[in-house]
Design goal:
Blueprint lengths: L1 H16 L3 H14 L1 E6 L4 E6 L3 H7 L9 H19 L24 H17 L12
Antiparallel strand pairs: 1-2
Helix pairs in contact: 4-5
Length: 142
């Protein structure tokens, strides 16, 4: 009787541990959708799409809140960070081309607005922390 009970308990444990494959696929799709940040302005005809696992969650929970930095601060830092980023994109033999895939067309004479500068700056901070990179002389910190 005890052996039968143990066998049933083990069988139940094995069966209950199995999760359906369909749920895993939907969770993966959901994570990709949650980790996609789109920044666009149809009037200026620009669009930035950031697909980085964990960035959206990091932006909402760990990054400094909107309004913490001034727009001028963000524009100045973004100009420096984009310049270094683009430099690294053009040097695939020196920098990992899977990290620095595309150039960013960021022009300091265009007013992209606060939201774009805020999200772009925070993406650079997130990127530097998660990939252990340093784009400028400023240490990335939150």
């Amino acid at each position: 009787m005890k052996n039968l009970f143990l066998i049933l308990l083990i069988c139940f444990g094995v069966i209950s541990c199995k999760t359906p494959q369909k749920a895993n696929i939907s969770n993966q799709v959901s994570k990709v959708e949650q980790d996609t940040v789109r920044i666009a302005n149809d009037e200026l005809e620009y669009e930035i799409i950031i697909i980085e696992p964990g960035f959206n969650t990091w932006l909402e929970s760990i990054a400094r809140p909107e309004g913490y930095y001034s727009q001028q601060f963000l524009e100045t830092r973004n100009n420096l960070l984009v310049t270094e980023w683009n430099s690294r994109v053009l040097q695939p033999q020196k920098y990992n081309p899977s990290l620095y895939e595309m150039q960013i067309d960021y022009r300091p004479n265009i007013d992209y607005g606060y939201e774009v500068n805020y999200k772009l700056y925070n993406y650079f901070i997130y990127f530097q922390i998660t990939h252990k990179q340093q784009l400028t002389g400023f240490t990335p910190r939150i």
